[in-house]
Amino acid sequence: MSIPQLCTALLVAIALTACAATPGRVHSTRPVPSLETRDGVALEGYDAVAYFESDRPQHGSAEFSYRWRGARWWFASAAHRDAFAAHPERYAPQFGGYCAYAVSRGLTAHGDPNVWAIVGNKLYLNNNRFAKQLWDQDRPGNISAGDQNWPLLPKLPDPP
User: Fold this and answer.
1) Could you please report the per-residue DSSP string of 10-21?
2) pLDDT-based confidence at residue 160 (cuts at 50, 70, 90)
């Protein structure tokens, strides 16, 4: 095997190892808030309902806000706010809005509201496009690993 072939094989092996889901193996010991917020606002002010209704991220407004689980959620309209208030679990991002790929690996990382997917009528965020590409390679496996890891990750209590 030539040096370039050996390097390629090594890189493929490393990539496959990095992509293997790690359910039940949490690597984070520092408690994090159960919802990722910026200045107390969830989803960086994006409208959680818009992902489902408009199939795209849309900025919300403090004018149409709703408080849930200690965070303020902003919406683009009163109708979106009311839909969220009636069923917040249906619209809120999975894993507290943290990166779905990171949670599948037993870690937390910032979830970017512009790097998202809806799978099984649930909203998932990822940290960046590369993390989403890795997550997309095995969505069912990564979602399963995330579902197993999320309850094991240490979390701070929700604020009042």
Assistant:
1) HHHHHHHHHHS-
2) confident
CB 65 within 8 A of CB 73: yes
Backbone angles phi, psi at 135, to 5 degrees: -65, -40
pLDDT tens for 114-154 read 999 999 999 999 999 999 999 999 999 999 999 999 999 99
User: What residues does each domain of the chain span?
Assistant: 28-156
Please state the φ and ψ torsions of residue 31, each to the nearest 5 degrees.
Answer: -65, 140
User: Can you tell me the distance from the alpha carbon of 78 to that of 60, in angstroms, rounded to the nearest whole number?
Assistant: 10
Backbone angles phi, psi at 74, to 5 degrees: -105, 150
Rounded Cα–Cα distance for residues 61 and 81 (Å): 10
